[in-house]
Amino acid sequence: MAQKKNVTFSDIAEYTHFSKTTISRYFNNPDSLTLENQAIISDALVKLNYKENKVARILANGKTEFIGIIIPSLYLHYFSEMLNQILSTYETFGYKFLVFVGNENKEIEKQYIHELLAYKIEGLIVLSHTIPSKSLAALSIPIVSIEREDEFICSVNTDNYMGGVQATGLLASHNCDVLIHINSPTPENLPTYGRIQGFLDVCKEHRLKHQVICKDLKANYESLQAQFNEIIDGLDRDYTGQKKGVFISNDTHANIFLNLLFRKHGKLPDDYLIVGFDNSPLSREAVVPISTVGQQIDKIAYEAVSLLVEQMNERKKRKPVPLDEPIHKIIPPVLIRRETTER
Q1: Whether the Cβ atoms of residue 334 and residue 158 lie closer than 8 Å to each other
Q2: What is the pTM of this model?
Q3: Which of 2, 121, 202, 299 has the most CB atoms at less than 10 Å from its CB?
Q4: For residue range 112-158, what is the model confidence (pLDDT) as tens digits?
């Protein structure tokens, strides 16, 4: 049986009565053709059963359809769910992803970016914090960040301040005797600092007894277990018999905190209310489903890829118009009440 012949640009040109140059422009610079001619060629591709040679196209125009992703770690469930949602946008935008986990090591992340640029990525999504946005902007490729310092690059972030207000307001509505916020030390130029500021503003406005516990929370369970056991022992000691409303900066840590309370007390004690942050699947799957501030991770991922694709498409035009300044999109959070507060 004779092998089926691959359809070439010459075949498409002959079928449509366009030149091979026009067919090439359809693939590499479609905006240079009228919509009518684009439709004629598109129809021809279907009828001829054209199968694109991706390698040949990359060699011809340098466009790989690859987007790079630098993510700090996959320990926090927020990051793994965000990555899952970003990867799922392939069905909408058609871009593939090269993912590197930086583990918060600046030099390693620089090597990863060098590697990604060698693969001719068309754009980059950055969730890690180690490299300043000014340095990233100098890479001269479209970049979108998520929940990190973003002065010089486009970004998509949660309204973290509103999330902090929502979490604190929920705990305050249950007439807690003391409100506690647990977080890692967070510079004020990071979007996530809004969680701390929202907590403090609500407590100060309503003159609520409160405490902020900032610790360098480690990225492994054994270290976190020791840190949270120490925090729990301190809260039990300092606020004996008082109703404690605890707002924790992410659902992974909230779940560890919850599990350790169960180990110590055999249940979630009546004098503890807990709110997490992010609404990763872990929060609803916990032994007691955790109230949380939902970051709408699916929307953040979609908006980040969409914003990046807009910039990449602009660069493909004959006369691209660069952005005058970075675009910063804010996604509102959604407060989700579950059993750690609604008992």
Answers
A1: no
A2: 0.81
A3: 121
A4: 999 988 888 999 999 998 999 999 999 989 999 999 999 999 999 99
